[in-house]
Amino acid sequence: MRNITGSRTFLALFVSGILLLAGCGEQQAPAPEAAAKAAEPAKQVYHWKLAMTWPTNFPIFSQAVDSVAEKVKTMSNGELIIEIDSANKHKAPLGILDMVNAGQYQMGHTVSYYWKGKDASTMFFTTMPFGMTTPEQYAWFYYGGGMELMQKVYAKHGVYSFPGGNTGVQMGGWFRKEIKTLDDLKGLKMRIPGFAGEILAKLGVVVTNIPPGELYTALDRGTIDALEWVGPAFDLNMGFQKIAPFYYTGWQEPAAELQFMVNRKAFDELPKHLQEILVTAMKAETLDATARMFNDNALNFAKLSTDYPEVKVKTFSPEIFKAMKEANNSLLEENAAKDPQFKELLDSQRAYMANARAWSLVSDYAYMKDNQLN
Ligand code: CA
Questions:
Q1: Measuring CA to CA, which of 19, 172, 181, 330 is 20 to 30 A from 288?
Q2: Sign (positive/negative) of CA torsion 65, 110, 258, 308?
């Protein structure tokens, strides 16, 4: 009997198995996909907010941020959602570090040297006058200890910091009159922020800071005699070429790096795969923004040459550069003497640059110098 019962049970299972395979077993068992889904834990979705220094639709900068949010959403299959607030909304373009540190926002996109007033060492993660070029600086960040030093500095401010796209060499600025000697700088009223402003102040320049929206009017009315902004990619939109015919080559921001920042607690709480997705998306976008800035600079410089032939591109004299470098070195030494962290950053960059620059000169520089297009 046992055998017969057993055989019947087997037969019943066999038949229902055939029915399932044939797709006729809906009433007997759930579909395999649904069963698998029911066994999965519920997906946890992280909703983050990012505050950027830029207004909505700011060329390249805000687009880089939009792109990171989109990439992260797609790559994480919707597990990490980043909502972006522009400066139009949060009204604190220079308050990003405080807001991300406080956890009001989990992320920010801004520039490290804006925090110079809180911590002078933050300048080293943007660019330094007469400092490294873009490839040199990325090599320092990723292979020369720069990333580790950056996290060490920013740990005190409650955030992790990441590169966020590089402007390349910025132009030295727009001048209404030609600058031939050091005397031409004395009493000159110029908008130039940061460490470069301190250098020029030592040479007798009257340094002012004016909000971007008022720059054109200030230069046009003679409230200032000169200003520096970024480079052709951004400067032509501002219209400076119409009122200041001398455009000087750069020295003050050879490789201005933008900054992503992430609240440390929020980042540490993310699962490992979302951390990796976020870091990878930021790094990819950093490369893309850097390439786009080079592209836009080149296109707009060509436009400047054809549409505004009256603009003269100039380079400061060796005498002026020498005085700027001396002022730069004495300011660096002053800061290093009173701030051990500043000294650690200065020593790191100087040591790295000694090798990196020797290689740049014999590679990129020699190649370009000896292989001019015309
Ligand atoms: Ca600038």
A1: 172
A2: positive
